[in-house]
Amino acid sequence: MKFRHEHKHYINYMDYVVLRSKLKAIMKQDDHTDADGAYQIRSLYFDNFRDTVLNEKIDGINHREKFRIRCYNNDFSFVNLEKKTKINSLCSKILAPITQEEAEAILDCNTEWMAASNYPLIVELYTKMKSQGLRPKSIVDYSREAYVFKTGNVRVTIDRNIRTGLLSTDMFNPNLPMITAGDSQILLEVKYDNFLPEIISNIVQLESRRQTAFSKYAASRIYG
Predict the structure, then answer these.
(1) 146-155 residues labelled b (16+ CB within 10 A) or e (exposed)
(2) What CA–CA distance (Å, rounded) separates 97 from 162?
(3) What is the pTM assigned to this prediction?
(4) Coil, strand, or helix at residue 5?
């Protein structure tokens, strides 16, 4: 499991406009972006009846993990199961491809097939659904701009229009009603391996903007 540094900052719209211009001049845009330079992400997060994932985030537990199912641009032919592990400011993500039908079976808690999967991550989620009571819990939608820089394996993302499906698990409904999650902040995320090149550091260091531990999943639970 490979861990990377991850830092998040709230920014305002003027920050966004300036950053976007500078990032486009130095970094390459992610290949998945559309004509407007962004793409849509929908994630469905798992938790148990004790809300362990949520409470560990709120309590600032240094070592925690979360499972989610993710798709892009309402393209349900490409779906991933992901597990994100965080230790202090270091993060790691592993994933396994699943079909829409498999994802829908998981949403319906039809899970016995998962035990025989060739993907260890699917087997792990099955085990934790059985032993820890993990269940599909909350959907988050947002628009992302992503920029990459080869040196340091840097990835800078700007997430906007973060919305929640109000505890709905109807992930494959393109018309799912959504509302703004929290204060509708714009979120800057910077991820890199062992070092952050100075040319990128100079762009993303915003003296007036505080670093944050913002969690999209926690924001999606603000209403229940």
Answers:
(1) bbebeebebb
(2) 24
(3) 0.92
(4) strand
